[in-house]
Amino acid sequence: MTKLLNGNELALEIKKEIYDEIKKKIINKKKRIPHLGIILTGNNKSSITYVNSKIKECKNIGIQSSLVHLPVGCLETKLLEEIHKMNKNPLIDGFIVQLPLEKHINHNKIIMSIDPKKDVDGFHPENFGKMALNMKAFFPATALGILTLLEKNKIQIYGKYTVVIGRSNIVGRPISILMSQKNNFKIGNSTVTLTHSYTPNIENYTKKADIIIVAVGIPKFIKKNMIKKGSIIIDVGINSKKNDKKIVGDVDFDNIYGKASYITPVPGGIGPMTRVMLLKNTLIAALNNRKINEKN
Ligand code: GUN
Fold first, then answer.
1. Between β-strands 247-248 and 239-240, what pairing exists: parallel, antiparallel or unpaired?
2. Catalytic: which of 121, 210, 235, 250?
3. Average of pLDDT values for 65-91?
C-alpha cells in the first residue's frame, strides 16, 4: 500500500507553531511583527502566482509583507538599487528576489548583493556555504520542507540510498547535500547520487533507490518501471499546461501508486512545505534582528 505524505496537513501544523511563537515572543512583548520583503521582476505567470501565495500566507500568519514589482525589461541597476534598499531598511527582517530572473540580468550578481542576514531563501554563497559545511545558516526552503516532511512522518533516511534528479541551486543541489550531511536535523546520513540531464540511463540509478527526489520540471517523468517496490517518492515538480490551471508533478502518480511505500501528492505535497519554511526562515530572521537591536 502506498501512503501519502500530506504536505498541506503538516504545513498547517507548522504554521500554527510559527503563529504561536510570533504571539509569544513578539506580539505579547509588544515588539514589531516580522516583515518579509519580496522583489518580483517581469511577468512570469508562475512567479506571480507563487509570490501571491507567499503574500497570502504571510498575511494569514501575522507576518507583514512588502512587494516591489519591477516591470519586464527593468535594468539590473534598478534591481540592485531595490535590493540595496531592502538590505538597509531596518524594518525589513528578511527578503527574497523571486527567481527566475530575465536573461539580461546577471543572476549571480543579484544573489551576491543580498545581505546574508536577510537572505531567507538561503541562496547567498555565505548561507549556501555554511549549509554545505554543516553550520547554522538560512537553508533553502524546499530542501527544508522535504527534510521536515520526512522527519515528521518518521521516515528514517540514514543508511538509505537516495537518488536526486535535477541539480538546480534551489532544490537538487541543496537537498543532495543535506540528505548526505552528517546528523543534520537528526536525519541525513543517506548515501546520495545527484543525477541530471547529462546522466545516461537515469533508471539504472532510480531502480536501486530507497528514496527518489525529483525536481526536473518534466510532467510524469518518473514511471512505475523506473522505481523499486517500496521506495519513497518525493515529487517537487509543479508543471502546468498553457491555459490549464491543473498542475501535475514530475511523477506519474497514478502509474506508480501501489508500488511506492510513500509518495508526495502534487498539489499538496512539497509546495505547501516550501511556503511554510519561508515563513519559518522569516521568523528566525525577525528574532535574530530583534536580538541585534536589543544589544545596541
Ligand atoms: N523560484 C522558484 N522557487 C523559488 C524559491 O524558493 N525562491 C525564490 N526566490 N524564487 C523561486
1. antiparallel
2. 121
3. 98
Contact 29, 67 (CB under 8 A): no
Domain final residue, candidates 61, 79, 114: 114
At 185, is the pLDDT very low, low, confident or very high (cuts 50, 70, 90)? Answer: low
Q: Is 180 in the pocket of ligand 1 (CB under 6 A)?
A: no
Domain count, the chain: 2
Q: Which amino acid is at 188?
A: G
Active site residue 23: no
Residues 227 and 211: their CA atoms lie apart, in Å, by 9
**Average pLDDT of every residue of the chain:** 95
- Ligand 1 midpoint to CA 98 (Å): 5
Residue 178 belongs to domain with CATH number? 3.40.50.720
> Do 242 and 190 reside in the same domain of the chain?
yes
| Ligand 1 center from residue 141 Cα (angstroms) | 9
Q: Look at residue 106 in the predicted model and tell me its pLDDT.
A: 98
For residue 291, name the pLDDT band (cuts at 50, 70, 90): confident
Domain of residue 228: give its range. Answer: 141-271
Q: Is 121 in the pocket of ligand 1 (CB under 6 A)?
A: yes
